[in-house]
Specification:
The complex is a heterodimer of chains A (about 425) and B (about 350).
Chain A (H helix, E strand, L loop, with lengths): L1 H13 L2 H43 L3 H5 L1 H6 L11 H17 L2 H11 L4 H11 L7 H8 L6 H9 L7 H6 L2 E3 L5 E3 L7 H32 L2 H15 L3 H12 L4 H8 L13 H25 L4 H8 L4 H29 L3 H6 L7 H11 L3 H25 L9
Antiparallel strand pairs in A: 1-2
Chain B lengths: L1 H15 L10 E6 L2 H19 L2 E6 L4 H9 L7 E5 H9 L8 H4 L16 E13 L23 E4 L5 H8 L7 H5 L2 H12 L5 E4 L4 H7 L5 E5 H11 L3 E16 L7 H11 L2 H7 L6 E2 L27 E2 L2 H20 L1
Parallel strand pairs in B: 1-2, 1-3, 5-6, 5-7, 8-10
Antiparallel strand pairs in B: 3-8, 4-7, 4-8, 4-9
Classes of the chains: A mainly alpha (about 425), B alpha/beta (about 350).
Chain lengths: ~425, ~350
């Protein structure tokens, strides 16, 4: 018994208290880390990794390097002034022969077609003819097979392809392109759409955010201050649309706002207007429908912050002689700012990614950037372009978030 | 507890099973575009095929986007054995090596017998569909007769519905501007031709309602939003048959395109996929399809087997072919990206 006590005491004496504390602390940290590990892994696997991979896609493209190795090697010494020499043409013929045999002409043609519209099918037909060639001189023969091989711009394009990294997609996403000397120039006006689409996306998102704030703030105030008997049914009216599919709500706006829709018919019946007003398939329709969908996202954070503000603050201000507006503006409103910031940021960032609503109720000039990203991903299979547009949208969002943080402070955001 | 363990084991077995399980031979996943087309294909192809061969067909749906198939093939998780692809996306998938090159000998069908057989290496043409101009006879007793009427604001004042893509519109603009149907793509390959088409579209630009999905045109007509609209013939027929509408189709300058059966690369049930396609692309099956949906057979021998009462509704009926345009997927594969971008810029102006 005595010896045991001595042993225990001895064991504790040999380890200093600080080390013991550290050990306990470490174990606690490890436990906490094990708890968040699944979520961390999920975020890494489902979010961080794909996004990094996407960014890589925007600048990496080794199609030509992999499929036309001989041409790429032959062009390494080409100065880009005149047409390349016989060697390059021989390499081209060899590469096309191989591509024809391995059925990769389509991929080469498609990759070149991105930058020089219309050459895609020419590459395939050249390869078909080149597959029968037995010997040189290749230069004259290739140009005879297809005049495109006598154009300098196609060789500049091939030379640019000899690097696995390209700025082409990112440049095109902000309406720039390479000319035949591989210099960066602005795209012609009839091809410049992306800068406008980005600005439009930002503009619509700001508009919708402001609209939801103006509509949502008073309603949130009502909900937060009325007795539960009245505010509960009101709350249900706010969240019910929240649980309805976006597609259904968008289509409902079409029914309401179209030329012979409910709104127009009612206005005409009341003799307020004589001709049906243009309420849909334009910017107005887009903003109205998006505002309706986004309203709960802005309203709920504001409401939950307002619930925590004690009514005695405003009463105190009033009793000290402040007018009703002054008391609201100086005492009540500043306390709701964190909720406003949270709601607006949520709505704004969600708006940036909209595309089904503008497609259904918008006009021809209401195409938002997400639409183009989806189009390049699903229909054009031009994943480099989709990645580049996504990359720029992501960067723009992060910049805006940074500015927001500087102005408002992210730590001030409260969801309740 | 035991049941749930069995469930998990069963699930794991399904997930981890190699391609050749005991019953892999008797089922096949066929993917189409849903809606009326897939319902018709079920009656004309899927059910009779299962009856004839004992191979069960599992159906899936997608909306014709190439992206999903590419993702499947790239990640080597191909669960779709046969897909219906549009002319354009089949071209693209073929170029990228994502779908199989069709071995016509293995298929046992004569490629020369197909209307569009020589155009695609990676697909077997199935039904022919048409993009047409439709109008509501109840609201417009004297409807448009030629494609020029689409651009005639004097004769037909009011809004027009058009597809929010350059395809169809540029072709129609040129035909209305006096280009012969056979020269349309030749003219459109030149920058002057493209300018000419856009100039023609400029004349009606402010009176156009742009639609994006095939369900919208019948709706636009029914709501009186437009006096006439570009539409797919199947949808218009459907609205007349099932909603009691009196929509009329103007067949002048109808643009014909066709769907294809394709096999994603890496499908573990390639042999059965070929069996199914051989069955579905046979003249009798193609003629059967017309009983459920007004899409024409691509097989030349199938026309003779079609019920004469149905014939006037088919895009490639002999009476409609006089001024019909075969939509050119090769042209759009080449120029589509460029023209789409220009079209988007033009729309936003």
């Amino acid at each position: 018994m005595v010896t045991m006590a001595a042993q225990i005491a001895g064991r504790f004496d040999s380890v200093p208290l600080r080390a013991q504390l550290q050990r306990v602390e470490r174990r606690r940290k490890l436990k906490a880390f094990t708890l968040v590990l699944p979520l961390l892994l999920f975020i890494l696997i489902a979010f961080a990794f794909p996004i990094t991979r996407m960014m890589f896609n925007a600048v990496h493209d080794d199609t030509l390097l992999a499929l036309m190795p001989r041409t790429m090697a032959a062009l390494s010494g080409w100065d880009g002034k005149d047409l390349p020499d016989e060697n390059a043409y021989a390499a081209l013929a060899e590469d096309l022969k191989q591509a024809w045999a391995q059925r990769t002409t389509g991929a080469i043609g498609q990759r070149m077609n991105y930058q020089l519209s219309g050459v895609g099918s020419e590459v395939t037909s050249s390869a078909r003819k080149a597959s029968t060639l037995s010997g040189g001189p290749y230069k004259a023969t290739m140009i005879e097979i297809n005049p495109i091989w006598g154009q300098r711009d196609i060789w500049s394009l091939l030379k640019r392809g000899s690097s696995a990294y390209t700025a082409y997609y990112l440049l095109r996403s902000i309406d720039y392109q390479y000319d035949s000397d591989s210099k960066i120039v602005a795209s012609p006006p009839d091809q410049s759409i992306f800068r406008d689409a980005f600005l439009r996306t930002l503009g619509i998102s700001v508009g919708v955010t402001v609209a939801t704030l103006l509509l949502g703030f008073p309603v949130a105030y009502l909900l937060a201050t009325l007795p539960p008997r009245i505010s509960n049914p009101l709350m249900i009216m706010v969240v019910l649309p929240f649980w309805t599919s976006v597609l259904v709500r968008t289509t409902a706006w079409v029914v309401l706002l179209q030329q012979h829709g409910l709104v127009n018919d009612a206005l005409i019946a009341l003799h307020i207007i004589s001709q049906p007003a243009e309420l849909i398939f334009n910017r107005l329709g887009t903003v109205v429908a998006m505002t309706h969908i986004q309203l709960p996202f802005t309203l709920l954070p504001i409401y939950s912050v307002m619930k925590t503000i004690s009514p005695s603050h405003v009463r105190a201000a009033r009793s000290l002689g402040a007018g009703p507006f002054y008391a609201f503006w100086k005492v009540y409103f500043p306390q709701t700012l964190s909720g406003i910031a949270a709601g607006c940021l949520l709505t704004f960032i969600l708006c940036l990614g909209y595309y089904i609503t503008p497609a259904l109720v918008g006009g021809p000039s209401d195409q938002m950037i997400a639409y183009f990203i989806a189009y390049y991903t699903n229909e054009q299979l031009n994943w480099g372009m989709a990645s580049a547009l996504g990359f720029i949208l992501l960067i723009a969002t992060l910049v805006l978030y940074y500015v927001f943080n500087k102005l408002v402070g992210v730590d001030r955001i409260k969801m309740g | 507890m035991i049941a749930s363990v069995l469930c998990v084991v069963g699930l794991a077995a399904v997930v981890l099973a190699p391609a050749k399980t005991a019953f892999a031979g008797d089922q096949l996943t066929v993917v189409s575009w849903g809606g009326a087309l897939q319902a018709a294909q079920r009656k004309a192809f899927f059910e009779p095929f299962t009856k004839a061969t004992g191979i069960k067909i599992t159906e899936d749906e997608y909306n014709g986007e190439a992206g999903k198939i590419r993702a499947m093939v790239d990640s080597k998780t191909v669960s779709w054995d046969v897909v219906v692809a549009g002319s354009g996306s089949s071209m693209q998938l073929c170029a990228e090596g994502i779908i199989e090159t069709i071995d016509w000998n293995k298929l046992g069908l004569d490629r020369a017998k197909f209307m569009s057989g020589d155009k695609h290496d990676c697909g077997v043409p199935t039904e022919v569909t048409a993009s047409i101009i439709a109008y509501d006879k109840d609201k417009l007793p004297n409807g448009p007769k030629t494609i020029a009427d689409l651009f005639d604001m004097q004769k037909f004042p009011g809004k027009r519905g058009l597809w929010k893509f350059p395809m169809l519109n540029l072709e129609w603009a040129l035909i209305a501007d006096g280009v012969a149907v056979k020269d349309v793509y030749k003219v459109l390959r030149t920058p002057e031709g493209v300018d000419r088409a856009f100039r023609k579209l400029d004349t009606i630009k402010k009176d156009v309602v742009w639609w994006t999905s095939g369900a919208q045109p019948p709706q636009l007509l029914a709501d009186g939003q437009v006096v006439m609209t570009a539409a797919y013939n199947g949808r218009i027929y459907d609205a007349n048959k099932n909603s009691g509408k009196h929509f009329e189709i103007m067949w002048d300058a109808a643009q014909l395109t066709f769907n294809l059966w394709a096999i994603p690369k890496g499908s573990p049930r390639r042999d059965d996929a070929y069996k199914f396609i051989a069955f579905a692309a046979s003249p009798q099956a193609q003629a059967d399809l017309t009983r459920y949906i007004p899409y024409g057979p691509d097989h030349k021998d199938a026309m003779a087997l079609v019920d004469p009462a149905i014939l006037p509704n088919l895009p490639n009926a002999p009476d409609h072919m006089a001024n019909a345009l075969e939509w050119d997927a090769v042209f759009w594969a080449d120029k589509g990206d460029d023209l789409r971008q220009r079209f988007a810029a033009w729309l936003a102006k």
